[in-house]
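Q: What changes when zinc ion is included in the input?
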Amino acid sequence: MPPGYREWANFLSLVTGPVGWALYGYGRLKRDFVNPGGGGEDMGEGKKIRMPMPASSDGTVHEAPASARITHNQRRRWWMFWKSWIAEETESELLHAMIAEAVAQDATDIHLEPHADYFLARFRVNGILRDYRKFESMTGDHLLAIVKVMASLDVADRSQARDGRFEWVDDDHGWRIDTRVSVSPSFRGEKLALRFLNRPATTLNIDSLGMSEDMKKALKRSIRHPEGFILIAGPTGSGKTTTAYSLLKMVAGPSVNTITIEDPVEYSLPAATQLGVNATWGITFEEGLTTILRQDPDVIFIGEMRDPNSFKTAIRASLSGHLVVSTMHARDTVHIFASLRNMNIEEASLVASVKMVVAQRLVRLLCPECKEPDEEIDEDSLEFVGFDGSEIDDLYQPGGGCEHCFHSGFVGRTGVYEYLTMDKTVREWLERGGHATDLRNALRERGVRRLYDDAREKVMSGQVWIQDAIRSVGFDE
Ligand SMILES: [Zn+2]
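A: The predicted holo structure follows.
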């Protein structure tokens, strides 16, 4: 050895020597006391054991080559020791990384499904399932066991379907997510489903919801002075809460006291106090709202108001210097005003408090990579686009699927919207006590965009399939 390297060799042996001896000693201890008689006999003589290979970070699963399939007890023991030392932490990290990735992708659910020799993890994003990655069977089993422990479920019991929940915490992002766990036995083993009950609102972006520039401007203007009432309507699953939270996200902050009351809490918003309404605890919206008002709030979000008393309390709050945002069931914007009036709320209060109302639906977005021109345009489609004999631009339908859309033909969902602000037309109609049809006609005369117009525009620009548009907003009335 050249003289210059001798110091290095001495140094290396000094460092590695004690570690090596410690490992050897621990291995002996484990073999002789922890696992007397050596491991491996339970596997049967000559039976091949496949080394569990953790999947790499790029999502591929490394199958052990044939040469790595060993029967030697010594190797197995070494693996067991190594695994017991590091594996638990590694698998917890895998689980954490998977949940963090799902949250970052704004997924609502994670599915971990057993297959013949691997587990497949999938995320549901925008209502569509997409593959995340595969795990070796053993890793998948361990991930499942970790989740069961976190959800206080019996790890040993694999024969029954069970539900639980846990709070997942990510200190790096400040995320605390209430996660519902469902484990069910299946043909190939246990299947796991995780659902996020409150996703972080920080991932929401008002620019990605499919709103027109005018609408975004109107929304931003309506929250500029944080007082008044904003209502968002649509059927269940139309993305109302998402719209509401993208608004709240813009106003909430350390200097603003934001309180939400919902059943259940769907998004988590930092710097906000969030209350879940629970009928079994005897908390109703109206009671919750009354309590909230004593807490000196600036901004209040009320999820899905139904009873007239809640609306009245909310309107009173919005008239006394609070910004109140709420969702409700209503077909369209005219219908929102008609419902409010039917609750015997004074027209003057409505005029003074309501700033903006929004009605919306969700439709699927065609995959731009594999969509195909729609050749079979039937009579309904022609009626929907308002065919007048002139040439129609290309309309598109979902294609066969590709990598980009995870073979579904769609890349998510977008909102279809209409909105009204408290302008002269609405004010006069309210004060006059006119019929809903009068307002509808007045708005049409002024050329105010309706749900139908927005959906039609998204069809004509090739973003949305005409069948989806018809299903969500119907025909031009
Ligand atoms: Zn595609």
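Observations recorded in class: The two ends are 92 Å apart (CA to CA).
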